[in-house]
Amino acid sequence: MINPFAEVNWNPDNAQRRQFAKSLLIGFPALAVAFFIIGWIRHGRWDASLEFCLWLAGLGAGAGALFWFLPQISRPFYVIWYFMACCIGFVMANLLMAIFYYVVVTGIGLTLRLLGKLTFSKGFNKTATSYWKDAPPPPPPSRYYKQF
Question: Is the pTM of this model over 0.90?
Fold first, then answer.
């Protein structure tokens, strides 16, 4: 299992803190624009989510600008941000892997069962002394030189 917490630098230098500030400076206004467009399409008027989008863009850009000029105060926010991102990533990765596994394995099993293709012999044979099946003889050694 992948541990996202091992990948994060929990003691970032000023360059990484400025990169974090840049992501806030760019990311939150872009997210606000996306929310604004979705609100505009959904409600049919431009003022439906304008106040929320302005607050989101302003807070993100303000925090990004503050952290860009004063990177030493951004460490607690950086650590909290990446801790929450790792938690969300850990849950989502495991959830998606579980869903994918169950959908694929169950889908293959149901398909094989509907087609009547079992890979094993089902049922009990009370007259049999053993369920052992002899293995087929190995192919000739010359076969290993022409595998395909």
Answer: no
